[in-house]
Amino acid sequence: MTNPSNSAATSVAIALAGSGGAGIMTAGNMLLEAAASAGYYALMTRSSGPQIRGGEAAAMLRIATHPVECMPAGFDLLAAVDWENVHRFGAEIPLGAGGLVLGDEAEGAPPAVFTASGAAIAALPLAAIARGIPGGRPNMVLLGLVGALLGLPEDAMHEAVSRTLGKRPAALEPSLAALAAGRSAAGSLQPFTPLAPPPGSAAGRWLITGNEAAGLGALQGGVRFVAAYPITPATEMLEWLSPSLESVGGVLVQAEDELASINMAIGASYGGVPSLTATSGPGLALMLESLGLAVASETPIVVVDIMRVGPSTGIPTKSEQGDLDIALHGLHGDAPHLVLAPNGVGDALATTQWAVTLAESLQCPAIVLSDQFLGQARAVIDRPAAGASPAARDVAAAAAEGDAPYRRYALTDSGISPMAIPGTAGVTYTADGLEHGERGTPSSQFTDHAAQLDKRLRKLADHDYGERWADLEGEGDLAVITFGSCTGPLREALALAYERGLAVRLVSLRLLAPAQPARLAAALAGVRKALVLEQNHSGQLLRHLKSSFDLPVPLASLRKPGGQQFNAAEILRHVVEWSAA
Amino acid sequence: MAYKPIRFYQTGTFTVGNRLLPEGQRSVQADMRRTNSLNSGHRACQGCGEALGARYALDAAMQATRNQLIAANATGCLEVFSTPYPETSWQIPWIHSLFGNAAAVATGIAAAMRAKGRPDVRVVAQGGDGGTTDIGIGCLSGMFERNDDVLYICYDNEAYMNTGVQRSSATPGAARTATTPADGGAAGNAFGQGKDMAAIALAHEIPYVATATVAELRDLEAKVRRAMEFRGARYIHILVPCPLGWGHASDATIRVARLATETGLFPVFEAEYGSVTRVSKIRRRVPVEEYLRTQQRFAHLFREPARTDLIERIQAAADRNIRRYALLDEAEAP
Question: Chain A residues with CB inside 8 Å of B161's CB?
Fold first, then answer.
């Protein structure tokens, strides 16, 4: 946030905006890369008009001297190349009272929705400056201007532009000239609080989206086959995985629908290759029948659901945590399975990797609930610690003549029974969706059904999930329980609360199923009441906590539907009110 | 001397319509009473072939049914650009059917009209190539097999455009999409995997099957009108170039569609009960290279080293179409 009394800011939020084709996203990505290479932490989200191409666009960035996981309540700078339809972002780009709205003087006054907060207004002849440079474009002038206002080093800006346009020398030279022209034009503006010096160098950090991180987690977990069907906002994960899988000897197939993709993945896993599919809510709904087959046949499989606003097509480009209910309870029959949720851009890697490991070792489906915000946000993160850890499936060895008959679904103490890969001598079996006995042959006997249900429940219930089931932070006799993308803004809100003398614990559930009631009860020891934070309309996490956990504390709810992310100030306000109630 | 009216307008050309023609020959769009089923103000890209095709098709269907028409629409570009508030452009009863289900939802509407004794109310289902040839083919084949009283229109832009240009089973060989990039292995989409949806419809022996493009809008209108003369399942497959996904200029949509037919890559024909009854002959045959060069998705074929082998393969597919549908007069046939 800008701090007029100090000479430098530790966090600045900037929005770049303009009409379609103005090069806003290009400029936003360059600014993000420049900040990253200069040694800052940063987060970028994007928004665009509903048209498929050519609509107004906005790149929202937060650049800081510390890791950032959410946008603030107010932006410090809105810089636009033009104002055509940009007013539509009014709700998404709230300007702080000390904010600055910067535009082209030829474009007239900025929309009132941005200036109502009392933000200062400045205008420069952006397009005219660009016209003075053959091939120059206003977005590059704006980029140079914003870089100078923020105090980003000239060489970092130069490098970001060169890296993007390096392959197009005809565009590079005018862009660098426009960048320099923008930089020198910044001198005529009123002083803007620049960023404090960066907290180190870019070494050891990654610039990555949550979808890319989830894809990398899948690879590191040993996934070598992915089948999927295009769906917003999961598609980028597939586009990243397609060449990446190929480079490690894996395969990605684009299927004809979600039913085909989940069943291809089940087939590949049955064939012995760790497999995954990625989708969004409507696709997950279609896949539920097949997840039942994976449970019954004990076939490992990972489904990543990048949640979007539903039901139905809903708002495909915006985030919501609305699929928790079907992920937990959507399967038919008694079908124990895993549900996990990453709680940050970087955590999408670790949690997806963990999901692959768990699915493979427990021979069951795992659903990973990411969402549009985590998936499409691009962030500077510290390099995750975990490296590749190919998951270990308990594979049956070949049997010789005279050995006891192979029992694929043997009733072991752990519930886990060695899985034969087709082609292994002496251990042929039928993997059946029909209920079966220990050898896999279909059975309609009550005793077999009860024994196999016990087995499938036991292997999940008795597994030791260690410390990763949740992130537990802070202390005090109050707690906020959440999951997924609400965790980032909650962490920031509770840090602000602590500065004000209000200590509140953070509980971010990473393992949502099987539920860990004893662990959560222990984590809440000494807590007098808890608030449940989630982004959906009906309180799906609240219901889960009430139905699958027997918690010793009264629960209150803070929730709102998708379409607009929680910010820290908003959560802080509610936490303060709730703590006093 | 016999009176002979002087015509100051062109006929037999590519001109879309003319109010001076006799009523039966006029285009629906030239009619002052046209319905504007898909109104202005929607959010399609500049030069969108699908928006153009849908407006002409639906207005023609409205005229043929005396405005007693209900439309079901699969997920896709058409649904996405035409419906979001406040730019909703539909001026007719319209239901979104999710992605793979437009044919089934339309079947249900047709059944309801029959149950209510309203045979005058007709039903159109529409979808893109992904919603038709990939995820929707099961419901569509069922609709054909039961001979449900629905006209299904497929607007084919040869990939999933609104999610960012991924391949579909209608994407032609060698075309680049986001999921068939040119790096590593063979460039562009694999050959021989595309579904010839019109031929699949033909194999169901339904009352009426036709193909059309947005380059011949009068032909498109006439086919929709003809389709509404039948009861039972009908299918029209319309080629609608996509400037964004194909990588051609926004003002080249019509020209690109015309080149698709003039090369023979997209045969234009009509069929009744499983037999082809009429084909649109190619008036000026052009080599496929002329078509391919208009589009960025094929640009990798012409970079050094040029992939003449792939271009020849595409030419062979065009020649096969020309022979199969007798698109040229005997003397010129390859």
Answer: 52
Per the CB < 8 Å rule, is B169 touching A312? no
- The tokens describing A364, both together, are 């069951």
- Domain spans in chain B, listed from the N-terminal domain onward: 33-325
CB pairs under 8 A between A and B: 72
| Residue A479 backbone dihedrals phi, psi, to 5 degrees | -145, 145
Res A444: pLDDT: 95
- Select, from the ranges A161-170, A350-359, B85-94, the one with the highest average predicted confidence (pLDDT): A350-359
Lowest average pLDDT, out of A160-169, A243-252, B184-193, B294-303, goes to B184-193
Q: Do A53 and B244 touch (CB under 8 A)?
A: yes
Q: Name the residue type at position B192.
A: G
Local structure of residue A70 (DSSP, 8 states): S
Query: Which of the two residues, B3 and B56, has the higher pLDDT score?
Result: B56
Rounded to whole angstroms, the Cα distance separating A443 from A118 reads: 73
Mind listing the pLDDT tens digit for each residue in B14-45? 454 455 667 666 788 877 788 899 988 888 88
Please check whether residue B98 touches A, CB under 8 A: yes
Quick one: DSSP state of residue A489? H
Report the pLDDT value the prediction gives residue A1, as an integer from 0 to 100: 41
Q: Indicate yes or no: CB of B178 within 8 angstroms of CB of A239.
A: yes
Is the minimum CB–CB distance between A105 and chain B shorter than 8 Å? Answer: no
Per DSSP, the three-state class of A141 is helix
Residue A230 CB coordination number (10 Å) = 26
Q: Which of B40, B162, B244 to mutate to test the interface with A (most CBs of A within 10 A)?
A: B162
Instruction: Report yes or no: B164 at the A interface, CB cutoff 8 Å.
Output: yes
* Radius of gyration of chain A from its Cα atoms, rounded to whole angstroms: 26
pLDDT in tens, A75-119: 999 999 999 888 888 888 999 888 999 999 999 899 999 988 889
CA distance A78 to chain B (A): 26
Question: How close is the nearest chain A Cα to the Cα of B295, in Å?
Answer: 17
CB-based contact A256 B161, cutoff 8 Å: no
- Contact residues on chain A for B46, CB-CB shorter than 8 A: 54
* Distance between first and last Cα of chain A: 30
Whether A203 contacts chain B with CB within 8 A = no
Per the CB < 8 A criterion, the answer to whether A136 and A172 are in contact is: no
Say yes or no: A550 contacts chain B, CB-CB below 8 A. no
Give all domains of chain A, ordered by start, each with its CATH number.
Answer: 11-188 (3.40.920.10), 206-382 (3.40.50.970), 394-463 (no CATH), 469-580 (3.40.50.920)
Q: Which residue in chain B is spatially nearest to A232 when comparing CA positions?
A: B163
- CB-based contact (8 Å) between A52 and chain B? yes
A424 touches chain B (CB under 8 A): no
To the question of domain B33-325 being in CATH 3.30.1330.60, the answer is no
pTM above 0.95, yes or no: no
Collapsing DSSP to helix, strand or coil, A239 comes out as helix
- CA of A52, closest CA in chain B: separation in Å? 6
- C-alpha distances (whole Å) from A16 to each of A222, A271, A435, B80 are 39, 49, 58, 25
- The answer to whether the bond into A384 is cis (omega within 30° of 0) is no
C-beta pairs of B323-326 under 8 Å, 24+ apart in sequence: B324/B267, B325/B267, B325/B269, B325/B276, B325/B279, B326/B279
Tokens of residue A279, six digits: 């989708």
| A227 membership: H or E segment, kind and range | strand A225-228
